[in-house]
Amino acid sequence: MGSILLPVVARSADGSYLTDLKRGDFRLLVDNVPVPIESFERRAEAPISVVFLQDLSGSMATGGRLEASRRAVGQLLARARPGDEFAVATFAGGGLNVEVPFTTHVATINEAMSLWQAYGTTALHDAVAWLPEIGAEGRHPKRAAILLTDGADNASLIPPHEARSIVRQAQLPVYVLGLDSGDPYQLQASGAKMHRYADVLNLLAHFTGGRYVAADSKTDLGLAMAQIIEELRHQYVLSFRMQRKGKRRDHRLRVEVVGRKVRISTRQGYRGTPPAAWKLP
Predict the structure, then answer these.
(1) What is the CATH number of the domain that holds 108?
(2) pTM to 2 decimals?
């Protein structure tokens, strides 16, 4: 039977991380039905697996966006601990390239970044759809993807909603650093979204349990990267088993903390067979 991983970040009402929760404190529901938690990871010192998904399309060459990306990735790598592993994939011209498979050697990532050049069109959603395959190579339960892009998409064959559905299979939160992509909640006088790409990026982050960060290319993204890696260090990772056979479909996920008012960040659903527990009497 396959298992579904749920990276979970739990905060109190004031935004501080809750670090003392135990397996029994969590309640996991699939389609509003409680499901037993199969495994539980909460060690703050546990190593992490992080995929950097970097936009190298032509629009990233303007306004210092590519250099801002390099600085941001470098700032996160500077906070790496022994055992942490990282992978780098880039996309441009309608294609995706896994430049560095998962490695613990930070120098290898830095070398790959030094060769980045912006070119071609942007197939953002096509690239995002590869995250389940790339992320599956990570060794650690605590994991995430970090997407660095200006958000423009002019070449994808996959529509945004389909890309979000595919990414749900990746079992990792996607943190999106949107360079000059705008505020997803800003509206025009007509009531329409001011920045439609930002809205799409924000939805991608939300459905996977990650977070969208809007920044201009001149902004120091070090604070955003520091916050992301702090969240990863404080991740709890829950899992449950799926049935070996059965119809694959979309299922809703919800995680609660029993008896406490807690802000939970986790993925909103998965696509697969029903939980194994549903077969039990």
Answers:
(1) 3.40.50.410
(2) 0.93
